[in-house]
Amino acid sequence: MKHPELTMQSGKPYPMGATVCDNGVNFAVYSANANAIELCLFDEQHHETRFRLPEKDGFIWYGFVANIGAGQRYGYRVYGEYAPEKGYFFNPNKLLIDPYSKQLDGKPILRNADELAWYRPEDARDNAHIAPKSVVVGASQFDWQNDKHPNTPIGQTIIYEAHVKGFTQQFPDLAHAGTYLALADKRVIQYLHTLGVTAVELLPIHEHLDEYHLQTLGLHNYWGYNTYSHFSVERDYAANPLQAADEFRQAVKALHAAGIEVILDVVYNHTAEQDLKGAMLCQRGMDNVNWYWVNEETGNYFNWAGTGNALKMVNRDVLRWAADSLRYWVQEFHVDGFRFDLGTVMAREPEFNVYRGFFSLLYQDPILAQRKLIVEAWDIGDNGYHLGNFAYPYLEWNGAFRDDVRQFWCEQNGDLGALATRWAGSSDLFHKCGRKPSASLNFITAHDGFTLRDLVSYNKKHNQMNQEHNQDGHNENHSHNHGTEGDTHNPQINTLRQHTSQALLATLLLANGTPMLLAGDEFGNSQRGNNNAYCQDNSISWLDWYNSEHDSCLQNDVRQLIGLRRKIELLNQNIWFNDESVSWRNTDGKIMQLIDWQDKNKKAMQIQLAQNWLICINGKHATEVFRLPENQNWQCHYAPSQEFTLQNNMLNVAHLGVWVFGTEKPAN
Questions:
Q1: 435-470 pLDDT tens trace
Q2: Model pTM?
Q3: Looking at 201, 332, 341, 522, which residue is catalytic?
Q4: Close Cβ partners of 644 (under 8 Å, ≥ 6 residues apart)
Q5: 167: which residues sit within 8 A by CB, 6+ positions away?
Q6: Half-sphere exposure of 201 (CA within 13 A, CB side)
Q7: Pairwise CA distance, residues 299 & 278, whole Å
Q8: Catalytic one among 211, 376, 415, 521?
Q9: How far apart are CA 574 and CA 298, in angstroms?
Q10: Does the annotation mark 411 as catalytic?
Q11: Number of C-alpha atoms within 13 angstroms, CB side, residue 91?
Q12: Around 655, how many Cα atoms within 13 Å sit in the side-chain half-sphere?
């Protein structure tokens, strides 16, 4: 029933969502196939007041309600045809959140079939008493003071991938551990600043849900790649859930003050409604066939994301929603960029086309085009792998860098050509269409897969805690346990692991392109062999800051290598290597010939950068002798250990690793 003091009036079709005006709130929502839409308002006693949205322009339904404002809880009931065979699931008995929700109250509980049934489209019961509600949000009063985007040049960017909770949950003696406020803590920011990174890439902080199968197992979606509301800040990472948005703003502001950018990992390829057996929460009930890619013959979803559904990024209203959401995070939260999970999905029409639709929209948007934009260049659909096929200005997670570098150092395959190609910026993939080396986002490890410590400690994944019979996660890890599986007190094995870890980090941080370091790799953090810890919201995934076995040597290496990268001018210019700037030399100091590249037993070479820097690479756990280029007074700027000698330009190294020399004396 209607509250006597509230009336529905004529409103405006834009902006979308709930917009606070002088004396009320304007509501606008998209649906092409609905017959009618009811706005449902809820008071503090949970009483519901319903209004039919009175106006419709195009496919936008809208209306204005006076005498309400920020904090008002609301939802929608959408009327239309129920025809699953055609992909229509309209059911006004299911309260839906607003796709433009900027705050939510409540989350669906889906621990068993009975609880799920309340959110199923075929269920005739009214679920408003348990369904989450959207909350009207007014203009932010947050004091940004003089906050500005650091705008670090892309050629000088060094990214640190972290999870808000996992990064800070066990940080020593930290107030509000695991929250945005912890991320804003001076000691946390000082740690990042001292390490030398220029940006943090945060795993999803949009409001997300635990999938049905995880709730039935008592597990949680720790990573957060199951987005429920693309405008709402995840409340679980807030010290005060009602202040989540401002707490995140505080973190961004504090990081910016230290010159550190904030990049968000975002999911616009699918939503938390999952497959046809999942819950109906928002888009499915709003207009399923226009929000998602649906097979017109069967009514089933195209499952390119592997999660049950795929958002239809050719529909102009869905595209506007996505752009509005991304712009909101830049304008309201001052974020500096985005990493797009499973980017190929958003480029499908359904065939891949990066020059239209979603990625074209971002390219021409005056707000978004100025931000750092990163894509994961694949999905699980046919013809889903498109590494190197995206266009300027997008950076791409370079899986080829990860695999080739792992194979060289962990498997010791001796492929100097593949290593050189990746070290030079992967020109085979990115030197086209005017792109620069920065387009290659280089990484050895990421949230998805082994940590660096586990990469050198396990031959096989150990994902039993995920309760999927160890069937989940990657099988081809190109890892090497160096003689025993898992932790060991054997000093010889631990030394071998250390050398391999140092070589991997040196390659990452000294290669042409944009490096990304996984949080915790710099001190040997382990996930106990779990290479798919997406559902482990516990000590398996949280960084183990208290571990007495922390590798301070690695930490010092990372600081030193990042500092060295800044000194090597060629690595900051974001230009392709050429014969004038770089020479590839064999261990005798001579220019590499075809026979040198083909000799996979040698496993060693030298890279001379702009005449005044020299990188010596030994890819085997055995001694190697290098004759350094003549007529230079080479000084050691980085060595993984003291087990080397340099006399009369003859370098003798005792083990696997990377050594860096310069013509200037290194600073103390």
A1: 999 999 999 999 999 999 999 999 999 999 999 999
A2: 0.97
A3: 341
A4: 636, 651, 652, 653, 654, 659
A5: 183, 188, 519, 543
A6: 27
A7: 15
A8: 376
A9: 49
A10: no
A11: 27
A12: 15
